[in-house]
Amino acid sequence: MTTTQVRAACPHDCPDTCALLITVEDGVATEVRGDPDHPTTAGVLCTKVARYTERTYHPERLLYPMRRVGRKGEGKFERISWDQALAEIAARLGGIAARAPQAILPYSYCGTMGLVQGESMSSRFFNQLGASQLDRTICAMAGFVGYTYTIGATIGTDLEQFQDSKLIIIWGGNPIASNLHFWMRAQEAKRRGAKLIAIDPYRSLTAEKCQQHIALLPGTDAALALGMMHVLIRENLLDEDYIARHTLGFPQLKARAAEWTPERAAQTCGITVDEVVGLARDYGQAAQRGEPVAIRVNYGVQRVRGGGMSVRTIACLPALVGAWRHAAGGIQLSSSGSFPANRAALQRPDLLKQPVRTINMTTIGDDLLKDGSPEFGPKIEAVIVYNANPLAIAPDSAKVMQGFQREDLFTVVLEHFQTDSADYADILLPATTQLEHVDAHLAYGHLYMMANNAAIAPLGEAKPNTEIFRLLAARMGFDDPCFGQSDDQLAAQAFDGRDARALHFDWDALKRRGWQKLNMPDAPFAAGGFPTPSGKCEFYSATMLADGYDPVPTYIPPYESVATNPELALKYPLAMISPPARNFLNSSFVNVKSLRSAEGEPHLDIHPADCAPRGIVDGEMVRIFNDRGSFVARARVTPKARAGLVVGLSVWWKKLASDGKNANEVTSQRLTDMGRAPTFYDTLVQVEKAAP
Ligand SMILES: Nc1nc2c(c(=O)[nH]1)N[C@H]1C(S)=C(S)[C@@H](COP(=O)(O)OP(=O)(O)OC[C@H]3O[C@@H](n4cnc5c(=O)[nH]c(N)nc54)[C@H](O)[C@@H]3O)O[C@H]1N2
Ligand SMILES: Nc1nc2c(c(=O)[nH]1)N[C@H]1C(S)=C(S)[C@@H](COP(=O)(O)OP(=O)(O)OC[C@H]3O[C@@H](n4cnc5c(=O)[nH]c(N)nc54)[C@H](O)[C@@H]3O)O[C@H]1N2
Ligand SMILES: [Mo]
């Protein structure tokens, strides 16, 4: 028997991007471990990826190309050859492209975060074709835009510093589920005497383990941050020297914060005045003592109407108290802006001969149902889905389903499994998993460039995304030499090796070593130098004014809340959020039995005070509904959900739920204030006992 160890990288949409060691015995991957030498992975994997072989060798892996034989959505297919599949797709796309290339739409997101199997050959293909562009904003863009207005780029505190913080505010994140290797550092900080505070409407796994939990109403985070600023200024818990040297617009911020008394903030957030004042004092007084204070702000904050403004506002706090002076102080939203990724080389936007429209992935439900018009452009006639599961993860799901049901729509899905979306494919193509292909990765929670080597041969007739688009390009007669590049040639262009941060990036060396840290200062803004237009942390942003926003931090209330939409709240009085379940990764892994068993079935956490008037008892089935749709779940009566809030951990495969539906039946397609992002957690519903 020959046994080898292969260096790999976790491909999943998670900040941790772990370094993996794959044990391969006679061509079969038998074990996936976290690399003990990689500083942030530290030999630890989450339960999902520790079971990656179970997913890869799953009996339901797609192994051959298939053509639909049943109705759309029914999931009946017959096996065809690659030759037949490619010929049929090329003929259909070629016919549409001859008339209206923009009637073709790619739909992809982060099934893999790889720079190569994500958007490289696929983007080249769609650019050459002149297809519609996709606005890939369904996850993080509101926060990115908001953070960038304040800080200048998504650069922040290094994960490897948090263990030295003395106060960590975990703001709208549940790292035990979604950012484990940050949680390990936060726990180490706690052991060394730090206080951890969770700000979250829900008593998440993480909130339970922090010394303090502030359960505000969803979408009110900016009001809390403004109330904190009020107290910091009133009690002079400021770093005046840092403010004078490295910030812009303190007088304007001071005037705004003056409007936000702790009483007003507390009222808006549905918390106590003591919570607002205490949080500000904990933060400001620790900073005054010279202790590092850090904020880990996550995506939970930004899936509401004012999500961009919330992150922009929270991102002002570290500069007020001088937290950036310390390597273990400051704030982290994402580290992705630290990487000099060479996206233009990979995706070749220059292949696009004229400007085309952009379709937002969040509004796919409406857009698939639109006719052609001068404003919209041509009706969408073909969708190519890869690295994504829109039927499960896009909001307002009934509309998404109606769109994909259109008989005149040609749908191709590249997948590992027969997901909810795959059921609607006309042609279903088998894609390789991370163990079967090559890739280069950046991370959004740490600072290492990562390499993924192929550990095993592709299963069945599965092919990497790149190879599928390479073959399609050849069928379509695209003869630019860029369509002939191999995956290694693509990976070699992943980072700009002339950039000081990725100096000496060399793909062959990275493949051998597995990972390489960027050259970044430990405390990125200790001496200012923010990558904003002014070079300062911008409390006042002229760019925001030019973009049509309030240039100073402010509070933008939710679309759907009891306070801001009382009329709607008469019918639908409960706020619903649907954050990630620990054992799933968005909708990935839901079909892995051991992980699904750990989650059990779709649940709805609901407060006892909201159950009594509805006659709901623990463990019974309830129906959650609003004007957009409904789904059923088993009620868990618990104070973990604050009164007035219900929580349905997500994202379930619809077809594995008893009613064939999931939480996205009730979420809306409305977009955030910034970044054209979704508002999954800005949803009012009613709950009742389900019909037996
Ligand atoms: N196990 C697991 N890990 C994951 C994922 C997964 O599906 N499963 N998904 C990955 C992806 S794609 C992403 S984007 C990240 C997301 O992970 P996080 O950044 O942690 O964000 P969420 O899980 O959306 O929400 C985190 C917490 O925010 C709370 N929250 C909801 N609304 C609000 C609000 O208005 N204000 C505040 N302060 N808190 C609120 C929720 O109750 C939840 O506990 O995780 C990644 N990691
Ligand atoms: N209600 C609600 N909805 C949500 C969220 C929520 O918190 N609540 N979270 C939102 C967020 S943050 C995000 S990021 C989106 C995520 O939405 P998606 O990016 O669509 O994520 P997944 O649901 O994991 O689907 C990814 C699919 O890609 C496939 N895949 C993986 N690797 C490859 C590959 O190499 N090739 C091909 N062809 N396929 C591959 C997987 O098998 C999987 O089915 O969901 C959003 N939807
Ligand atoms: Mo995400």
List the helices and strands and how they pair.
Blueprint: E1 3-9, E2 19-25, E3 28-34, H1 47-50, H2 52-56, E4 66-68, E5 77-79, H3 82-99, E6 104-108, H4 121-129, E7 133-135, H5 141-151, E8 167-171, H6 175-178, H7 180-191, E9 195-199, H8 205-209, E10 212-214, H9 221-234, H10 240-246, E11 247-248, H11 250-258, H12 262-269, H13 273-288, E12 293-297, H14 307-314, H15 317-321, E13 330-332, H16 343-347, E14 358-360, H17 364-367, E15 382-386, H18 390-393, H19 397-405, E16 410-415, E17 427-430, E18 439-441, E19 448-452, H20 465-475, H21 487-491, H22 507-513, E20 515-517, E21 537-538, H23 542-546, H24 566-571, E22 574-577, H25 593-599, E23 603-606, H26 608-611, E24 621-626, E25 629-637, E26 645-647, E27 684-689
Parallel strand pairs: 6-15, 7-14, 8-9, 8-12, 9-10, 11-21, 12-13, 15-16, 16-17, 22-26, 23-25
Antiparallel strand pairs: 1-2, 2-3, 4-5, 4-17, 18-19, 19-20, 22-27, 23-26, 24-25, 24-27
Bound molecules: ligand MGD (2 copies) and molybdenum atom.
